[in-house]
């Protein structure tokens, strides 16, 4: 990861952390019907997202309406990712297996969004994500739409040139944490690396049963 990208990612992480701290201070003492969780930090008040439209692997648009009715974990990455992406998707697949007994109409979801539309078509993004678990939602979009979507979730990504200098030799530096969306498709919290799959699975199941 380049020094510039590392600095920007650190700044974004600190800003998100400060935002959560400020929000918790502001809403301290307010009651909540949300159960206690171990693997994530929930916002005291969910944050509505601006309208977005990503392209799913079946060529249908992914909008907020598509995500409503389920708790969703959003992970930003790319298919050429050598480490954190396959590791995280494999971990999330373990959680998805634990949700298999929950009703399909309300079962928690995982959404993988590729931040590398230059190399990752919507179809390729879906093929990659479904290799870990067939129920994973997968989408991408042109960079401007992706940047707006990521920014609304306090996530960042950027192209990092490779050592050869060839235009096709590059990586994508990106936020590695998860964003939690509630059944109204609002940003409800975050889960940072390293992930505890057992706790994530239990927390999402508890949220699903408690908040419809």
Structure description:
A hairpin with a 5-residue loop joins strand 9 (178-181) and strand 10. Helix 3 crosses helix 6. The protein has 212 residues and is of the alpha+beta class. The longest helix is centred in the N-terminal third of the chain and has 24 residues, at 3-26. The strands form 2 sheets. Strands 1-10-9-4-5-6-2-3 form an 8-stranded mixed beta sheet, with helices on both faces. Strands 7-8 form a two-stranded antiparallel sheet. The protein has helices at 3-26, 64-67, 84-98, 122-130, 143-152, 197-210, and strands at 41-47, 54-56, 61-62, 72-77, 109-114, 137-140, 157-161, 170-174, 178-181, 187-191. The chain is built from 6 helices and 10 strands; from the N terminus they run αβββαβαβαβαββββα.
């Amino acid at each position: 990861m380049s020094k510039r990208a590392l600095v920007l990612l650190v700044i974004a992480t600190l800003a998100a952390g400060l935002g959560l701290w400020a929000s918790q201070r502001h809403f301290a003492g307010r009651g909540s019907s949300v159960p206690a969780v171990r693997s994530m930090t929930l916002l005291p008040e969910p944050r509505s997202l601006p309208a977005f439209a990503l392209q799913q692997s079946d060529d249908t648009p992914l909008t907020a309406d598509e995500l409503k009715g389920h708790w969703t974990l959003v992970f930003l990455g790319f298919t050429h990712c050598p480490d954190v992406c396959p590791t995280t998707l494999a971990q999330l697949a373990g959680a998805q297996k634990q949700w298999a007994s929950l009703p399909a109409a309300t079962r928690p979801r995982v959404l993988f969004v590729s931040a590398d539309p230059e190399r990752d078509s919507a179809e390729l993004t879906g093929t990659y994500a479904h290799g870990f678990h067939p129920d994973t939602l997968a989408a991408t979009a042109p960079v401007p739409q992706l940047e707006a979507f990521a920014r609304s979730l306090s996530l960042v990504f950027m192209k990092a040139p490779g050592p050869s200098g060839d235009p096709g030799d590059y990586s994508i530096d990106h936020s590695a944490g998860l964003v939690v969306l509630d059944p109204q498709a609002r940003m409800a919290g975050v889960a940072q690396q390293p992930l505890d799959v057992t706790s994530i699975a239990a927390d999402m199941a508890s949220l699903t049963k408690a908040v419809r």
